Predict the 3D structure of the following.
Amino acid sequence: MAGPVARTENLVKRFGEATALDGISMQIPSGQVTGLVGPDGAGKTTLIRILAGLMAPSEGTVEVLGSAPGERLDDLGYMPQRFGLYEDLTVIENLNLYAEVRGLPKSEHAESFKRLLDFTDLARFQDRLAGKLSGGMKQKLGLACALVRTPKVLLLDEPGVGVDPISRRELWAMVGDLTDQGIGVLWSTAYLDEAEKCDTVYLLNEGKLLFDGAPANLTGGVADRVFRVTGFKERRREFLTHALDRDEVIDGTIQGRSVRLLMKDGASPPTPQSLEAEGAKVEPTPARFEDGFIERLGGGPSGTSKLAERYRTIDKGDGCAIEAKGLTKRFGDFVAAKDMNFAIPRGQIFGLLGPNGAGKSTTFKMLCGLLTPTSGTGAVAGNDLRHARADARASLGYMAQKFSLYGDLSVRQNLDFFAGAYDLDRNQTRRAIEAMGSIFELEGRFDTNAGSLPLGFKQRLALACAVMHEPPVLFLDEPTSGVDPVTRREFWIHINGLVEKGVTVLVTTHFMDEAEYCDQVTLIYRAEQIATGTPDELKAKAGELSNADDPTMEDAFIALIEEFDRRREAREAA
């Protein structure tokens, strides 16, 4: 095996009295992808910044290409977690800037830029402002800038965050080409299906190393404890809640009409009788890396949502909670969303899926009343968006894709501000703030500025602000983007519980396993709806297209888009 391009030994990093990294020893071999996973606040970004020479360790040894961090910058590529390029510069201008900063000789610019633009498929967009790129294209540009000078070690801090499955696969293919050239890659990720693709994985939690080795070694520890349950009489969300409240069940997720359970070590295999689910079918199912990850962290949350217990019961009644009839939005000659049509019954989850730039957020914002449709109509809780926009907004809670609260205000001040915006009186506000603090574990952070919170707590605060007034409709735009799997499960426990209380949820997500929780999904591509149905219906359709026995939602996502492109090309050729 090739030697390491970077290593740490007994690495410690302290910030005052807080220990961010506690005795971390690791290696990054050349020609391999080394995965770095862990929940929010585990220390992943701190470790990467130390390797990049941006931060000094408190104790321990750190070497990059045999030298101290920062001494071999010409051979180091670094892509930060947040988009760090200049949004008011074009693609080619960003590449030029990074080439200058990295000291690439002028004579090599043209050849390097052509190689990178071809590599990332950004040649068509080289004159587009970086701020106007889709999420996937921004990540490709960030990768290109990190590769302006071909490095020997490449540090990627969650490059797949906010990126659709197609773009993530393209990123992985690009990185695979790099490792073939002998480059050592460290890939930090919140997507555990990505961790399974790594040669070696390091799992961090609260600054400590919980596991290192091949992904299969972590998965193997739970191989005989994962089961799939089908045919139960209860609603799937209700069944999952009851299952997760059992001591012997340490994790569970919804997969279409079935529920997937991870049992505690030493527990007997579940039966229909033990689950109180007569007539159900229980069968073993292959373990995934995520199962081993959740177990190492002590299991997922219980099934009962404290938020749902506090929430008022919404009368489901007749009619639909959200309707879109021919919704279309044009920006000049550009059609961002075309003829969107769907109706969402009360008390259901409806998912908008699609690649970056497909039109999901545009459709979402039209239904929220944040964008005026060019044509078509929409309604929320019976309120027409054209004639009763204020009433429509008052009946919904909105959680934006990007953290949109006030970073310079404290947690308590943000909650107080939104309570006022929703016309809660002082007693209601006091009770709501106390409840949100307890439910989302924010009490100890009430006086902390929102902008300085870890990402997971920012997302908790954003959801808390959206539900303070207990609206009948929730709009959640990628609510779990970038957060770790345990926090994602907490969010979906709350969402499932709210839906059981009659709340209607419209959600966008790039996590295809989350799409399984939806009652219905619609796939948007090139500004059009190309498929609508239950998750199981879309997976079955994808199975027919690809001849796959048991396709995942990600398989369905990709197969349906590829089929749409084939038909479109055939029409154009005719």
About this structure: Residues 553-573 form the longest helix (21 residues).
